[in-house]
Structure formats: C-alpha cells, structure tokens
Design a protein that fits this description.
heterodimer, A: alpha+beta, 2 domains, six-stranded mixed beta barrel, three-stranded mixed beta sheet, elongated, B: 237 residues, alpha/beta, Rossmann fold, four-stranded antiparallel beta sheet, 7 helices, globular
Chain lengths: 455, 237
C-alpha cells in the first residue's frame, strides 16, 4: 500500500470567526439537530413539558379570550348607550292606600329634559313595553309588545328580514302598522306570508309591515341588564300605542291582575362619543351622571334606574386582564417545569457523552465551543418543542370548537391571540437558554484527560 | 534538524489527598523535526503523563515545554486548545471517532474547531484524505460500520486534516491484530517519510521497531534513548 500525502489539497487558511458568524451558527444548529436525532425518543420526551405548556397557553388563551369577547361584544354593541328604565317601586306604605293601578316611571317631562343635552345625545329612543296577547284568526300567542320609534332597530342591532321596520311616518301619522319578531311570525303564520295580514292586539287591529331577522337572545351579563329575547316581540309605533292603548295597562299574571300606569318604560340615549377612547368614555359617564341628577330632581320616588353599559365594559375588561395574567402565570409555571425536565435530561446526557466531549476537546475545541454546542442543543430542543406546542395549540383552537358544537350542540367560542404564540415560543427559547446553561457549563469544565478516559 | 519539541526539567506531581505522587521527575528531552519517536516504558513510568503534556491536554507542575519556540507549559486552557487545534494531530488507541458522524464528517471535525468555514474545498481535502488512507468506498459510513483497522485509518486522516506539525499516537495499534497493526504502522512510517514528526506511545517491542528512535522511561526519568538504525525497512516500497 502506498500513500502520498502530497496529493492531498492543502489545509484551509485558518479563518478568524467574527463575533456572530451566521454560517457557524447554522452549522452548530445542524450539528445539534444531528445529535438530538440520535436519541429521538429521549429528546422528544424531554421537551414534552414545553410542548404541553405552549399548547396549553395558546388554547387556553384562545378559549378564554373567545368567551370573554362574547361577553364584551354584547356590551360593546350597546356602545355609548345610556339606558334609563322605569322601575316599579316597592309598595310604598307611606301613602297608606294601595291603589289597584300603580303609577310610576319615566314621564314625557323627563324626555323633554333629556333634550336639553342637545348634540351630545345622538339618538333618543323611548319605548313602552308590556306583555300582550297577539291574535291572528284562531291563533294566539303571548308576546312582548314594544311600542317604539324607528331608531329602536338600530340601537338594538336588529335586522329586518322582510318588509320594513317602524318608521318616523308611522309615529307621526299614528298608523296601525306593526312588525313581528321572527319566532312570533313563525308561530302565528306557519304557512302564510304575514306581510299585509292583520293581527289583533288589545282590541286593535295592526297591519304587519315587516318581519325581523332571528336574533340570538342576549345573555344576561349580570348587573342590571337582563337577558332579552327579541324573537317574540311585536313592534308598534310609540305614538299609536299612546293614543290607542294609553298609559294604563292591565296585566294578568298567574291568575291575579294588576294595573300599571307608565308613560315610558325605557329610554335609550346614544351619546355622541367614541367609546374606544378615554375621553369618549368619560363623556358617556358624565352624561349618565347628569341624567341621574335630572331624574333625582324630577322624581320623588325611586322609580327609575340608569344603566351605563360602559361601566360593565370596564369591569369586564379588568376581568379579562386578571384572567390573562393568571394564564401567563400558569404558563410560566408549566414552562419552568418543562425547563427543569430538559435540564435533567441534559445533565444525564453530559455524563453519557463525556467521552465525546473529551474527543472534541483533544481535537481543539475550546470550553466556549462545548458550551455553545450543549446550549444550542438545549435551545434547539425547546424551540422545536415550543413550535410543536404552537401547532398542537392551533390544532386545538381550530379543531375542538367544531367537534364541541357537533357533540354538545352549543358554541365554544375561541379567539386566537397572536401575541400568545410569540410569547410562548419566546419563553420556550429563554427556558432553553436558562436551563441549558448549567449542563453546558458542566460539560465544558470537564478535564479533557478524564473525559477521554471515560467509557 | 532543529528540535520541534523540547522539554526542560519537566516535573509533574499528582496530589491525591495527603499523598503527592511524583510522576515526572525532571525530564529533559528533545525531539527533532521529522523524527519518528517511540515512547516506551512500564505502566507507571510516566509515559502517558508525558504524552498528555506533549498533547497540550495537561500542564506540567514545573519545567518548560517548548513547541518550536513557544513555551506552552503555562498557557491558558483556551491557548492550549488553540495549540492542539493548529499544531497537533491525535491518534488514539480506541480510535475515538464520533459515532454519529460519517467518515468525512469525522475527518472534518478538527477544521470546525479551527474556525474554518466548511466549503466544497475543505470537503475535497477531507475526501482526498479518506481516499489516501484507503477509504474511498466508505466516505458516508459511520464508525460502527467499519472494522478497527478502518476506524484507525479514519483517525489518521482526521489527525492530518489540519496539517499538524506533530502527530501524537497513543498506542495506535493497541486494539488491532498484527496484520492490521502492520498496515497502520506502514502508514505512519510513510507519513514520517513525507516529513511528519510522530511521537508514539507503545509497549510492544515490535511496534517500537518501526520508529527511528526509542525512548524508554522508568519512574519518571529517561532510562534509555536509542537510535533505531538497524530497523528493517524492506517492507516499504
């Protein structure tokens, strides 16, 4: 056998690596991947904590935010509304006489005084609400009668399915037109077209001019706003109601009858302001306070209530913040636990690879090179684990709600927040550095001779 | 021939609890460039310790070790790594290849720690070295798929990749049968002829016969230092 070393190309010129040499980093990552690939199962088990941690963060955040957003949206739909309601006062024993018809609530004088706000108020929607039977031929349905103006649909985000809503002309001309909620229309007119037909309400005939779209009942968001089901509503012009039916209404409830004399059940005022800004919110609150002051002057009884939905918005937002920080806390704990898992395996790996470290040191590796190698391995592991967690998390966020809907029939709202992805991957990388550093240092401080002798 | 390695009054003590073991006791040696030296001696004679110091893996307790003109005895850990990476090539008894790397990648490894950027050129050099040691067919094999002799040949190629001034072979044939041993020794002799300085530790007389100079140690001191001119070179072409 003959060998000739002179035929071999010369050794490369020694390069002085820069501070951050990308091609070297690239190579370190490649080498780390190769080392990890040797023990695929071990590497994947050791990052399992990180994987579960990140996927939990992403999916929990999404579901939490989703359900929050639902509640927030209900409130936000109310926007800058201020709701002023008539409240039946508790039996006032002060007068001594208990009359059959109770008179209370908002008056037209109140409404006039609200007009002094001028341009601050965009819309003023008064309404008179009471339960009423609605009849068509032999069919009868208990409904909620809502006498109101044309702005009602806009303020409550109602859509007309067919025909039209109550208009200002209807109110001006005291027409006997009405609009039916979706369910009410279905029950009274299962087969026929309701438009143009007449229904009987409290002895008056009303011609149907429109049918509303189906609307999800609002969830009661606590506080003073109750759940409302708009689908069993019948809408008539406010002025028509006042003229034909009047303020006094007899209601039969569970066998007993009671009467009440109420001019206006509720007034919704829309403040001209942007509720996304602090100034807008302050303005809405200020108007709310003024309205309360007006009502305190006008009413000697406690027969009114003012609700500013924005107050609840802020409360809900605070709640969301608390919820988010709680999740971040849980996430940090799970990621730290994951990091400890990685450190544990890495320490075992260093012992197992002592000889490899010795060989590398003999071939010219500096302590720094060994640290880099093990650190890169740790970071590669946690980064891959973090990314796998993101993918699983996304799978949960997009895969579970349809399944949930299929099985339970109810909605599971999920809203993916992009910063939760960035956060969890970022934290995974940091965890890799934090928990890789000690094992890497352990590896680097080995004596090369001892390391070479190790089997 | 100028001296490439010179050790002057080299001492090495090991401290084991209360006991101090004096392993090297004032060693003075000088090796010429282009020479082929066999270090021999019974276990405990200090030959492994000397080899570790020569290989810049360990530092002496006292004395100087000149590698050409640099005293490397008191260098820092990083500087020693630099010296190993630039001037030295290692061949071990147990081959010490990295199991997860292919033949070519194992040969490349010292270049990585020189900070060299691996290009087609560096790869060509590694492939040429693999071919030179007769592994042209096994460039992509892993150490596990190679015989002991083949693994040692990869190690020789790896020791040459950084064009070292000094090759340190620690019982390079210790794990090989006699036929393969001869192959490896022939290869080392050929490298020596091509101008490489080789220092080899062995405890077998017939292996030591391949060297030009045989230094025997005993109890941390030089026992004998013989030029091996009577060596048979008929086996070489």
């Amino acid at each position: 056998m003959s060998i000739n070393i002179r035929d071999v190309p010369p050794a490369p010129v020694k390069a002085t690596p820069g501070f951050l040499d990308l091609s070297r980093l690239n190579r370190s990552v490649l080498l780390a991947v190769r080392s990890l690939w040797l023990h695929k199962l071990r590497a994947s088990l050791s990052v399992l904590g990180i994987v579960i941690g990140t996927s939990a963060v992403i999916s929990l955040m999404a579901f939490g935010k989703g359900s929050m957003a639902d509640a927030l949206n209900d409130i936000k739909k109310q926007g800058t509304n201020i709701i002023v309601r008539s409240v039946k006062p508790s039996d006032d024993s002060s007068t001594g006489s208990r009359s059959f018809v109770v008179s209370y609530g908002l008056t037209f004088r109140d409404l006039e005084r609200f007009e002094t706000f001028g341009d601050t108020i965009g819309r003023t929607v008064p309404m008179r609400v009471f339960p009423s039977e609605v009849r068509y031929l032999e069919r009868m349905q208990n409904a909620r009668l809502v006498a109101t103006t044309n702005d009602y649909a806009a303020v409550n985000h109602l859509q007309v399915a067919r025909g039209r809503f109550i208009t200002s002309e209807d109110n001006r001309n005291l027409t006997n037109n009405c609009v039916l909620g979706a369910t009410l229309a279905d029950r009274l007119f299962p087969t026929e077209d309701p438009i143009g037909q007449s229904v009987l309400v409290r002895g008056h005939r009303f011609r149907i001019v429109g049918v509303m779209d189906n609307r999800m009942p609002t969830g009661g968001t606590g506080g003073s706003s109750a759940a409302e089901d708009y689908n069993l509503d019948i809408y008539i012009p406010f002025s028509t109601c006042r003229a034909r039916i009047g303020e006094t209404v007899i209601v039969r409830a569970s066998g007993s009858r009671s009467g009440e004399k109420v001019a206006i059940s509720q007034v919704v005022l829309t403040v001209n302001a942007d509720f996304e800004t602090r100034e807008g919110r302050e303005r809405v609150k200020a108007v709310g306070e003024s309205i309360k002051n007006i009502l305190k002057e006008e009413h000697y009884k406690d027969d009114w209530a003012v609700t500013v939905p924005l107050d609840r918005l802020e409360e809900a937002e605070r709640q969301q913040q608390r919820f988010t920080s709680l999740l971040v806390l849980i996430a940090s704990i799970s990621l730290i636990v994951g990091g400890i898992g990685i450190m544990n395996i890495m320490l075992a790996t260093v012992t197992e690879r002592t000889r490899e470290i010795g060989i590398r040191r003999a071939l010219g590796a500096k302590r720094r090179d060994i640290i880099t190698q093990f650190l890169v391995e740790a970071v590669v592991q946690t980064t891959v684990g973090g990314l796998a967690g993101v993918i699983i998390g996304l799978g949960i966020v997009f895969g579970i709600p349809p399944l949930w809907n299929l099985i339970t029939g109810s909605m599971l709202p999920a809203l993916l927040s992009y910063w939760s992805i960035l956060l969890s991957v970022g934290v995974s990388i940091v965890v890799g550095v934090m928990f890789g550093l000690y094992p890497a240092w352990q590896a680097a401080r080995l004596d090369p001779i001892e390391a070479l002798r190790h089997d | 021939m100028p001296a490439i390695v010179r050790v002057v009054d080299l001492y090495k003590d090991y401290f084991m609890g209360d006991v101090t073991v004096h392993v090297l006791k004032g060693l003075n040696l000088s090796f010429d460039e282009g020479d082929f030296i066999a270090l021999m001696g019974p276990s405990g004679s200090g030959k492994s310790t000397l080899m570790n110091i020569l290989g810049c893996l360990d530092r002496p307790t006292a004395g100087s070790y000149y590698l050409r003109d640099d005293d490397v005895a008191q260098m820092t850990d990083d500087e020693l790594s630099e010296v190993r990476s630039t001037y030295l090539g290692f061949i071990f008894q147990a081959y010490n290849l990295l199991p997860q790397y292919t033949v070519v990648e194992n040969i490349e490894l010292p270049l990585v720690y020189q900070g060299a950027i691996l290009t087609e050129e560096t790869k060509a050099r590694c492939v040429a070295l693999a071919e030179m040691v007769g592994l042209a067919e096994r460039l992509d094999h892993r150490p596990k798929q190679l015989s002991g002799g083949q693994q040692q040949r990869v190690a020789i190629a790896r020791a040459l990749v950084n064009d070292p001034q000094l090759i340190l072979a620690d019982e390079p044939t210790g794990n090989l049968d006699s036929r393969t041993s001869d192959e490896i020794m022939m290869m080392l002799t050929e490298l020596n002829r091509a101008g490489k300085t080789i220092i080899m530790v062995t405890h077998e007389n017939d292996i030591a016969e391949w060297a030009r100079r045989v230094v025997r140690l005993r109890d941390g001191q030089v026992e004998s230092d013989v030029r091996n001119d009577a060596r048979t070179v008929v086996a070489l072409p």
